[in-house]
Structures
1.
Amino acid sequence: MSRDIMNTADKVMANTYKRFPIVITKGKGCNLWDSDGNKYIDFVSGIAVCNLGHAHPKVAEALSKQAGILLHVSNLYYTEPQTELAATLTEKSFADRVFFCNSGAEANEAAIKLARKHSKDKGENGRYRIVSMEQSFHGRTMATLSATGQEKIRKGFEPILEGFDYIPFNDIDALRDAIDASTCAVLLEPIQGEGGVRCPDPEYLKSVRRLCNEKGVLLIFDEIQTGMGRTGKLFAYEHFGVEPDIMTLAKALANGLPIGAMLAKEDVAEAFTPGAHASTFGGTPIITAASLQVVKILTEENLIHHCAKIGGYFKERLSWLKSRHDSIEDVRGMGLLLGMMLNTEGEPVVKSCMEKGFLINCIQGNILRFVPPLIIEEEDIDALVACLDHVLV
């Protein structure tokens, strides 16, 4: 049966993913099962999406309840779940206003548009360029791949959109040199996820904030992967003692359902007036009802504290592996966004772990990324570490 599904998928679906030869049929907590009955401990969680694990009963209940009340109406009207979610996000962040959409790429599109519109509304028509970081990842729409500082993401889609400049991450001098009279914003991930789980120096983001203030440009934090408790804080910017002007969220915001959000301070958000931007499915009642439950669980059930604690344990165990294997060059990350750099190809390790019942992820060719559900426990981590100790050279 699984072979039939894979063969059919390969015939009828766009060939945009290099899929592993398993068909996932069920999930519960940190575990997944395939169509052949094999069980896996999930250290990918939909790529930092299912922070509460799979089939969380409270999220399922919220979905079921809302499905029987109201699925969708146009954003021409108010709805209670959407309003309550926006109020909750602003209460728990720096922001005053929220724009809802369907994905991280759409959230970043909204941030790019808002930054440019903000400059235009101030009469600064020459300010439209955005500085982003090398090895960043902001999405695959034309604007967001143009903002992404990885040539492999942009390749084949040239000409990319004009107006983006790329500089090295963690280099404040390069940023100072890049900002000029045409710059309207700086866009960065507080921790680069797809770029290799690259963390900033302790004072870097503070220096970026000061420089943006000095130059009169906006600071945009892409927290699509780092947000919603993933780093041991609700938002990663909280670790660094700085606040952005705009922040984007998606991935874990609804634990697997499609939602994105752009949050902004009032003096910036006011550039979005009626008709300036829109999304048909942005913030529908059913999605926001589920997302609201996700935020409540994260913030009221001590999961973020657990993430910080268990993430520290996980990092220690990976560092122990590093002491045993010359193939490991570095261990880095925060909370449960962790990376292990190898001096060999990472894909064979991913496949060997999958054969032994563990799902992990490789990025940049040689970096193993670990983004399990925030509910992961020490025994699951110990089991993975024992597996890695066996398969690593």
2.
Amino acid sequence: MKTTLSNLIASRRSVFPGQYNAAPISEVEIKTILEAANWAPTHRRTEPWRFKVLQGQAKTNLGQFLAAKYKETTAKFSEIKYNKIAQKMEQSAAVIAICMQRDEKESVPEWEEIAAVAMAVQNMWLMAHEMEIGAYWSSPATIAQMHSFFDFNPGESCLGFFYMGKYDGDLEVGTRLTTIADKTTWLQ
């Protein structure tokens, strides 16, 4: 099994909305991906990850909201970027808002809860990849505006969006700029 997991980790890639085909992602597939997220490590069992699944009109509405917020808040408006924001939503079979619910007791540092959410997303990414569903995580500059779109609980915030879609063909082979040996110091 280790070889299979190693291969899965090494072959996972960001797959962008422009690469997705029109095939739908079922509710069962999405629930399987979310269940993988729920098994992420979590300090003091705060389980801070929260997800909002958007499909259909909800996805379209989010794309329009993000495009409008971009237009309102950017100093260097680009019509191309404006159109691309909404287009990414339409190209995706599903979009999951990646959210974090801060522990109200603040029993762990906030960075640990952010890290736990990131680990949950890595689990989602690996599961999606195993299921041959492309995905990528994006956190647009307008992420701080999401309280105007979603009904958040106190202490909840959005960390980004997990775009998903099925794709055709093979993914590129991955590379790293340096080896793990270049990034590791051994102390004894």
3.
Amino acid sequence: MLSRLAPAKINWSLEIIGKRADGFHELKSWFVPIGLCDNLSASEAIQQQASLRVCGPQSEGVPTHEGNLICRAELLWRQAGGQAPLLDWVLTKLIPHGAGLGGGSSDAAAALLLLQEFATRALSQTSLTQVAAQLGSDVPFFLNPTAAELRGGRGEQVLSRAKIPQPGAFLVLAAPGFGCPTPLVYQAVGAPLIGHNSLQGSTHSHSQEPSGFRCPSEPQPNALEAAAHSAFPALADFASAIQRHALFHLSGSGSCYFSVCLNFESAQKLASKVRSISHYCQISSMGPSHSCP
């Protein structure tokens, strides 16, 4: 059996440039991996078919069939030419589903990396990245989630890499008892149409260090927040309730908010205040973790 941690991410900033002719939105966003993670294990299948079992405190509502990105990742990896034994998957879910923390995308990336380890015929790095991009705009980020990355296009382009901001800080993550489906939030954005992909051609590999962009030391506005509040008025009510205790920032399209605390003690104090009004409340470190919290 082999296992991999699948870290969550937060959007340290998120800017919407406009709506493209292909229907997708052009964005620029600093992705930051954090210590909260799922755990994905795989072993050679006992029977002549693959299986997926999902467990853990955040497993409710997570599909265990083709609707799960882990299953789709395996299918696309094999269609791209990867060869490996059939696998039984076990996902221990600690990242809340549909919260804007990238849990599903991270799980898919972990599956691809585990398939590479089991492979009798592995994919090239280029092919692996292409498969990841097919699975979702955020998935390529999680193939190497070791630094902050400025992402462009639909989120699949690497514009810059930087050190983790405030690496000694802790986050209080708080979410209501519902998710915010990304398509519904983007439908409420009302972004202007742009004539072309303004960032096309800016894609960089993980090994390169593009210059010209600096990761801000503090979280920046999330352009999806107003749209998320419009699409889900209950999220606006939740945000108002937790903002009475500290400055919270929306991650992705929601529904999870995060607040940056200088140390673990202050994070504990804040968490104790918002836990009673949150369906989900968790303290996490900044940056990727080597063990699940």
4.
Amino acid sequence: MLTTTNTDMKSDKVDLSPREEYLFIGNSEFYYNTLKPLFSRSNFVSSLQDAKSFMLQTSSVPDMIVIDTKLNHLELVEFNVWARTNHLHKIPIIYNQKMLAHFQVKQLFSQKLVEDVLNLETNYRKLSYKFRFFQKIGRLREEDKKMPEKPMHLEATKVGFTTRLLDLVISSCAIILVSPLFVIIPLAIRLESKGPVFYSARRAGKGFKVFPFYKFRTMVMDADQRIHDFDHLNKYKVEEKQPLFIKFQNDPRVTKVGAFLRRTSLDELPQLFNVIRGDMSIVGNRPLPLYEASTLTTDAWAERFMAPAGITGLWQVTKRGKEEMNLEERILLDITYARTRSLLGDIIILLKTPGALLQKTEV
């Protein structure tokens, strides 16, 4: 339930101008009554999803966001990505320390998901000084106080309708053409190892939308549980606080049939159904596992989520299978695609895709 309260009440000790406004996310009656005198305008919602809806409906941007809910890490990451892709990333976010464990505080700071953590029960008056500090350093300028005229949320894209139509046509035709493989490949997988034929995992796509991502199973059954046993084989060597990508060279968890499916990209055929469902597009940035996606929330990286998730994309046709590709290159290619995406560009990538299907190395 969305509730909005505007008030002219001001603290005797704090002199605030009328435009100073904050958005409170939570359900605490205590903080509702305690915090609103500190700002000339106060808006209250119960969740991050309600906060997005409120900002879109009112076309207003608060000077500060205060969160007083139990931490849902993925939801907060999604909110940050949404804010950045809508150019709203300069809004300071303050989290109530009472709602967080110590390791969660470290996580929020290391991933730059909040500006500060504050014990609201004992230090709530410091919010006004926090605001003045962020205002002084230019964290939120006056020109940032309006929502974009055309927010870049999931449905808003210049080529969206035409691309969606092409996605449906191409994926439907492809499923019909390769339908015999949907019989042969499952038989080969089952002959080598017991277990399900299809593999489904949660992945993050455009705007950090999380969806079930389908592939033919190419690994042994306990592959997910064994992932950290092979950290020394990780192709992407990154330092702490950098984005986390995991890609094993000559992955020992891959079966013999799975290795063939990966080299020929046949393991990705079930993603055609993701396209039919609307989770993905034929061309786009690869949807990321959540442990990778949750580390790409800073200004430098989050822009890659402006583009749709895709089966093929810019980095696949330019760098796929090349050992010299590093972490920065891969993300920058994703960002480049997000910035320059066009229907003609997608067609060019599609035409280049067949030549990229056979990888030069097992990576």
